[in-house]
Amino acid sequence: MLILHRRVQLLQMTLVDCTREKFSKYEQLLNDAGQKPEFWDVVVITARDDSQKSIFDYQISLKKQRHEVPSFVKYIVISDPPGVKVGSGGSTLHCLEYLANNFGQHSLSQWKVLIIHAGGFSQRFPSQSVLGKVFLTLPCSKYPIQMLEALLMMYISIPGKMNYGVFIAASDVIFLFNEKGNWDFRVPGFVAIAHPASLKLAKNHGVFILEDMISPWGKYRSDPSSPAMVATPKCFLHKQTAEVLKHKGAVIPDSDLVYVDLAFYFDVPTALKLIQFYAGVKPLKCELEAYADFLQPLGSASSVDYYEQSSYPEKARVQQKLFGILNGTPFKVVIFHEAQFNHLGTISEYLHHICGNATLRSAYQFANHHGTEYGDAERLDCSLIHSVLGERSCIEAGTVIEYCILEEGVSIGRNCLLSNLHVPMNAVIPSNTFIHTVTLLVQHEVLYATCVFGVNDDLKRTLPRSCAFELEFLNLPLTSVLGIGTSECTTDDLWPANGDCNLWTAKLFPACSSRKQSCEAALLTIAAIKENGLFTFLRGFTVLVSMEDVMVLKTGTSMLDFQLGLQSKMLS
């Protein structure tokens, strides 16, 4: 047991050292005024639509002005085509066509391109719905960074080990890894990145089955000095159950682990084939998934089962055609045996990693109180980012507060996320609460809506109208918190007239004339829930909005101005 504990400690120390080394290299990139280093030529960030694209463009322009990202890189935000959702695969195809049409295939053939998939509503992390999850703030000790910079640091060595081509990455993962070993991406076709992970994690990801499942793991166990190595997959399985993975032979021998996907690269000839394929199938009328639909056709044992068993004929037709294009393309995987996968796609995951993940906190040198004015506030093990805390405030462990003004005497429970707020004097926010203010423009009038949910509320869970009040809001059924039976509340009072119901589309949040009044309304919402009288309380407001409405009425630049104002105050 002591030997195992020591191994874990050594792994943590290794990952911390590797990450800090990447920090140093990234800072050199920012400060290097000499010859252009080997890095990305183009960084593409995908956006849900033109509205999100404009907010992303504005944030990138601010980063370039503040020298937070390398100045020699071309940053391009590309919004998904209008209409049907096309998924990360469709978005990748659209990005490739955009680059070829706007810069020419000759330029594309001489670029190392990083595509970061960042579009979408971020319904599981609504504080990032407006500004985007790729701009999520991380409280590093020297200065807070955002996920964009974290990704550029994380993959800083990849461009120097690849030919011209395209590298695909998610925007909500921080991957700590020891990259020592003999590996690179300078081979034809596809090269993916994998790491050993549990069957529990694998059920929501892709898994590689290797031609030789024994050799990589055995080599690493016998010679840990080379933790990264290249292998040949015989197939790729996507989001399969533990039983299926075991039956298919995906489990690494002498372990209960599998090789799980992280990111992948493809070369220029493959990119050109994909552009030609897209020209023949657009406009897409279905979603394609970059990992599932680009990698499942690959390998000597690839199977057509995934599309032949599909219940969506149009999607199966496109998948079949894509299979024909990609099947037989060379396929390699780089395995990093010493790694830690950290997903920050939900509120609870974010709170855990920022406040409780010791390895990640040490690697990124997270500070508990960065750029924060807090007087004599009582602070436990929480994270405060560019905020003002009044006297006699009390904040419990596991809570993150970013870009907020808290007046005196505020009490905040455990495991909360507060963002963009002006919290009034003596306010009490219970544990496990998410609360976030958004600036709106309603008929040329600036208003504020403070959205409040339970940290574990499922905003995507959808029910038919007949049982909509079974949805849980702040960990309680709507049936009880609305006071139904005394207030005659109907689904039409909270949701649009047609369609199913979920928390994302429920009109639960008053729109108010100031940030502080909006927060007061949210606190009164919490109080009304405790008294089972939420609907009676909400009827007192003229304008009620849902998160869906917020995404239409938002003014992202106003939110950024508030954040930048607090940041400037804290740094002055």
From TrEMBL:
It holds the Pfam family Fucose_pyrophosphorylase. Keywords: Nucleotide-binding, Nucleotidyltransferase, Transferase. InterPro entries: GDP_fucose_pyrophosphorylase, Trimer_LpxA-like_sf. GO terms for molecular function: nucleotide binding; nucleotidyltransferase activity. Residues 107-513 form the GDP-fucose pyrophosphorylase domain. SUPFAM superfamilies: Trimeric LpxA-like enzymes. One of its GO terms (biological process) is GDP-L-fucose biosynthetic process. This is Fucose-1-phosphate guanylyltransferase. It comes from Geodia barretti (Barrett's horny sponge).
